[in-house]
Amino acid sequence: MAVVLVTGGTRGIGAACVEWFLGHGDQVATTYRATEPPLPPGADPDRFLPVHCDIRKAEEVDSAFSAIEERWGPVEVLVSNAGITKDSLMLRMSEQAFLDVVDANLTGSFRVAKRAVAKMLRLHAGRIIFVSSVGAFVGLPGQANYAASKAGLVGMARAIAREVGSRQITVNVVAPGLIDTDMTAALGEDRVALMTSQVPLGRAGSVTDVAAVVGFLASDAAAYVTGAVVPVDGGLGMGL
Fold first, then answer.
1. Catalytic pick from 105, 146, 149, 169?
2. Which of 107, 136, 154, 239 has its CA 20 to 30 A from that of 230?
3. Whole-prediction pTM value?
4. Are 146 and 191 in contact (CB under 8 A)?
């Protein structure tokens, strides 16, 4: 049984990760910004902890970790999933929109990882999984800010992996492709259909597809995997 924190675990991929870890007997906390999420169906209330946290605010990150530590002890598995989009073509994108997305997706991930590593170093163990995107590699129109933030996770993960590897802490990246989520649906039917036509497997993936890979990277089976980028994209970003 591990102590797991999934940021942004109230819907989509994050919620699927929460359910995966709960289903495997772990103690799982998740961050939320607005409405506190309900207990997932069939879950043990003693193994689920919603913590209010905006990862753009360092003091809230620290408070969230402190709440988890007070209840269960140090976070042993961090799934850094929380993020936002503010899509717009580059010439129409404001500098603030660029900064907002990078702050939430990249700097926010740095904040939670730094706080987690502080305790993991003492444990001489830990798993950090950053949720990136195929958009970091293939580039999608209107997502200069999002692509930059998600690509930055790769370099950051590999730098951290080299820093903490001697303490048996692994740091990896999952890069989902076209996944059936509310965020994908918001792109519109035409754009989703075009993207689906470019996927070698010919379909969108599910959130459980991504959660299973995240779970693998958090498991003992992946103890010798670090600094890796694992695509879960049906081949969309093949070779990139």
1. 146
2. 107
3. 0.95
4. no
Active site residue 146: yes
User: What does the DSSP assignment read for 57-119?
Assistant: -HHHHHHHHHHHHHHT-S--EEEE---------GGG--HHHHHHHHIIIIIHHHHHHHHHHHH
Higher pLDDT, 167 or 41: 167
* Domains located in the chain, CATH noted: 3-180+207-230 (3.40.50.720)
* Rounded Cα distance, 224 and 218, in Å: 11
Per-residue pLDDT tens digits for 33-62: 988 999 998 889 999 999 999 999 999 999
Confidence band of 184 (pLDDT split at 50, 70, 90): confident
